[in-house]
UniProtKB/TrEMBL annotation, chain A:
PROSITE patterns: ABC_TRANSPORTER_2. Residues 6-244 form the ABC transporter domain. It comes from Antarctobacter heliothermus. This is Simple sugar transport system ATP-binding protein. GO terms for molecular function: ATP binding; ATP hydrolysis activity. The keyword tRNA-binding does not apply. Keywords: ATP-binding, Nucleotide-binding, Sugar transport, Transport. The keyword 4Fe-4S does not apply.
From TrEMBL, chain B:
The keyword Lipid biosynthesis does not apply. Signal peptide: none annotated. The lineage of its organism: Bacteria, Pseudomonadati, Pseudomonadota, Alphaproteobacteria, Rhodobacterales. GO terms for molecular function: transmembrane transporter activity. GO terms for cellular component: plasma membrane. Part of the binding-protein-dependent transport system for D-xylose. Probably responsible for the translocation of the substrate across the membrane. PANTHER family: ABC TRANSPORTER PERMEASE PROTEIN YPHD-RELATED-RELATED, XYLOSE TRANSPORT SYSTEM PERMEASE PROTEIN XYLH. This is Xylose transport system permease protein XylH. Keywords: Cell inner membrane, Cell membrane, Membrane, Sugar transport, Transmembrane, Transmembrane helix, Transport. It is found in: Cell membrane. It comes from Antarctobacter heliothermus. The keyword Transport applies.
């Protein structure tokens, strides 16, 4: 079997006295979707910010293709192939699809002019690869649906060299149909085979539709992990609830 | 259904519909209406040889500073110090021309007076920009502080060195200095020569009446042309849009947001300095009150030209239309005898309000109507 592209070893992150992450281990493989699940406050966002170079771990080590790495800032992380699509997506509504796609990394011809035609074509083709046929790359992003914007942000991250694509709750702000669009996008990226995806969600159904591997976080610790085939439905539901038995929770609810 | 995709919901539009929805469409219509009305109300005098020259002079003045203000607004900030910067730059140049270089370094040539002044104003623009991006304070308040500070400094310097807040009767430098000529001379003489050759442009004695347009018209065309090119065709242009639209996402994508903003504050200072240089070398005078309220005219023109107050969106062409409109109305009193000059401000108020509503509709349409 292949080696993990990214390995997280015993990562601890403290904010002052508060232990946000307490010795987390994680491995992500190219061509796989790794679902990262856990309740609010479990530490999911803190973990991905550590991977994205926003936070530095208090202790522990990250490895890219087996080599230890130290990200001092987000630039280091993105240079190492970590592409993060945050919940707000970092898109600008008033600007066109193409201008958003190349924001900060525009293609320039002689005299420093933008190669608008080339950029239009790349933006169109890259988005088509993962599922949206965008007829008009000059359309403002503000007129796009939430799912389309997500696709834009993902296509952009991939085009600019992401080997690990981190999606922070990509489906949480969307309606039913668009959630499915995003899941389709995730599967298409997975099919390429060369990109590892970390998929953060609250939604067990969504995770079961796309995930190859699971890691469950609760109170800053990994309380369970495994491959898709090895975990039962009930086990997944139990771990998502932070380890509590669903029966117990239902019982507690009924007792009130 | 199902083979229908999200993209199909974007209705296909005709070329005309697209044109009407451009940000400068409103400004264009207002301009056409104003040009037509003034043409007839002035009995065509507003566009005879002299009328055209005088109208273009003020249009160019408005156009120069409004272009600067619009670019800065697209980048998400305001500059209320433009008017005071004009006064400051004019004072600085005239004072050097009259009293020599600072620290007794000898006589000032027009080139030196301009270059030293530009160095000062660009530094001031840099300072305003740096304060805004470092402090995170609103540029409205920071540049308001500079509005007072610079106007005050201008008056104090005038009184200390010159004993009076005016300088008049400077020698005419245009003959000897190409720099003075480039700012205060006349350009496009061939237009008026051709006009004369075709049988127009004749004064009462039957000679050629007007020789050329003010140099500031050329400066306006250059500044607007460069601004248009930069905004629509270059990386810097994309950065300006991105910075004004949402600076956090721009930053997250690697746009040097602070440098973009600081450069734009320097650009408004540059525009103010060109405005002042044209004034000083044209009239050979300076006055501490010069440029008063120009910052507000510039912002009003930028808004009428289709620039959003919230940043991220605007059109250099629309701003040019706005400058034409405002310039014509400001000058209309000279060609329409019965008109009260204060109608200019009435007009500005009405048009500005209408433009803000129109722009808001555009913004809502683009951002999905929230
Ligand atoms: N910058 C920070 N400073 C202090 N505490 C933080 C910071 N970021 C996150 N935390 C805390 O760490 C815990 C985990 O947060 P987070 O990683 O955002 O959880 P999740 O994304 O799983 O909901 C929370 O209790 C949160 O309050
Ligand atoms: Mg979170």
């Amino acid at each position: 079997m292949t080696d993990p592209y990214l390995r997280v070893e015993n990562v601890v992150k403290k904010f002052g006295p508060f232990i946000a992450l307490n010795g987390v281990n994680l491995e992500v493989y190219p061509g796989e979707v790794h679902a990262l699940l856990g309740d609010n406050g479990a530490g999911k966002s803190t973990l991905i910010k550590t991977l994205a170079g926003v936070h530095r771990p208090t202790s522990g080590q990250l490895y890219i293709e087996g080599k230890p790495v130290d990200f001092r800032n987000p630039r280091d992380a993105s240079d190492a192939g970590i592409g993060t699509v945050y919940q707000d997506l970092a898109v600008n509504q008033l600007m066109s699809v193409t201008r958003n796609f190349f924001m900060g990394r525009e293609l320039k011809g002689p005299l420093g002019t933008l190669k608008m035609d080339v950029m239009d074509k790349i933006a169109h083709d890259e988005m088509l690869k993962i599922g949206i046929d965008f007829s008009d790359p000059t359309q403002a992003v503000g007129t796009m649906s939430g799912g389309q914007r997500q696709t834009l942000a993902i296509a952009r991250a991939i085009y600019f060299g992401a080997k690990v694509l981190i999606l922070d709750e990509p489906t949480s702000a969307l309606g039913q149909k668009q959630q499915m669009e995003v899941l389709k996008t995730v599967k298409r990226v997975r099919k390429r085979g060369d990109i590892a995806i970390i998929f953060i969600t609250h939604n067990e159904i969504h995770s079961q539709l796309v995930a190859d591997r699971y890691t469950f976080l609760a109170l800053g610790q990994v309380i369970g992990a495994g491959k898709a085939g090895e975990l039962s439905h009930d086990e997944i539901r139990r771990l998502m609830a932070g380890g509590a038995e669903m029966k117990d929770l239902e019982g507690e609810l009924a007792a009130i | 259904m199902s083979d229908r995709s999200e993209a199909d919901r974007l209705a296909q539009e005709s070329a005309l519909a697209r044109l009407v929805r451009r940000p400068e469409a409103g400004a264009f219509i207002v301009m056409i209406v104003v040009v037509t009305m003034i043409t007839f109300a002035s009995d065509f005098k507003a566009f005879n040889a002299l009328g055209l020259k005088n109208n273009l002079a003020i249009i160019a003045q408005f156009g120069i500073i409004a272009t600067g203000a619009a670019l800065l607004m697209i980048g998400g900030e305001f500059d209320l110090s433009i008017g005071s910067m004009i006064g400051f730059a004019g004072m600085s140049m005239a004072m050097m021309l009259k009293w020599g270089l600072p620290f007794g370094l000898g006589e000032a040539t027009p080139f030196l007076a301009f270059a030293i002044t530009l160095a000062m104003t660009l530094s001031l623009g840099w300072l305003i920009g740096t304060i805004v991006v470092r402090s995170g304070l609103s540029s409205f308040i920071v540049s308001l502080a500079f509005l007072f500070f610079l106007r005050g400094t201008t008056e104090v310097s005038f009184r200390l060195i010159n004993q009076s807040t005016q300088i008049s009767g400077l020698p005419d430098f245009k003959e000897q200095s190409w720099v003075a000529w480039a700012f205060g001379g006349e350009m496009f003489g061939w237009v008026y020569d051709a006009w004369f050759a075709l049988g127009g442009n004749i004064n009462r004695r039957g000679e050629q009446w007007v020789d050329g347009f003010d140099a500031r018209v050329l400066w306006w065309l250059i500044i607007a042309g460069v601004a248009y090119f930069v905004l629509s065709r270059t990386q810097l242009g994309n950065w300006i849009y991105a910075t004004g639209d949402n600076k956090d996402s721009a930053r997250a994508n690697g746009v040097p947001v602070n440098r973009v903003k600081t450069s734009l504050f320097m650009f408004t200072a540059f525009c103010a300095t060109i405005f002042a240089a044209c004034q000083v070398f044209d009239t050979n005078t300076a006055d501490a009150a010069k440029g008063n309220l120009m910052e507000l005219n510039a912002i009003a023109i930028a808004v009428v030209g289709g620039t959003l107050m919230t940043g991220g969106f605007g059109s250099v062409i629309g701003v040019a239309f706005g400058a034409v409109t405002f310039g014509l109305v400001a000058n209309a009193v000279f060609y329409i005898p019965w008109l009260d000059g204060s109608f200019y401000r009435v007009f500005v108020g009405v048009v500005l309000l209408a433009a803000v509503f129109a722009n808001e509709r555009i913004r809502k349409r683009i951002t999905g109507g929230i």
